[in-house]
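Hello, quick one for you while I still have it in my head. No rush at all, and the record is pasted right below.
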Amino acid sequence: MATDINSVVLVGRLSRDAVLRYSASGSGFLSFTIAVNKAKRKADGSWGDEASFIDCVYFGQNSQSISQYLVKGKQVAVQGELRQSKWESDGQQRSRVDVVVNTLSLLSGANQGQSTGGRYSSQFSHRPPNPMMEPQAAPAAPEPQVPGPESFEDDSIPF
């Protein structure tokens, strides 16, 4: 039996401020668009950037608190899965694909972190941590004692 995989990892910049919305049940969620650039050769032979705009949705308990940090130009990394929505409008079938974000990491700001003096990263996830997936720290092995060159005498060298 084949196993299906639906996993997406993107790093890009927000093309607009994130919008905080609320579901019918009252839970908050964020919707935002990430611009992901790729180098592409132009007709004149020079290189330029071509952007792909990816719509994302983040359902998380902390979506309201992080919405203030998700502003246009902010670089973020997201990990999630693709979800296709289908509907009918004016008698025509419509569909769109969004990334449902599981993990959101804030990277450098719109100004590349220059005003803060460097890059920073914060990570948010709406899935509880899985203790079975956490790597366990192995006990540190003692360093082997290898004699240095100062411990040898000339008489012990075989040549």
Notes: The chain has one domain: 8-39+49-129. The two ends are 66 Å apart (CA to CA). Helices lie at 63-66.
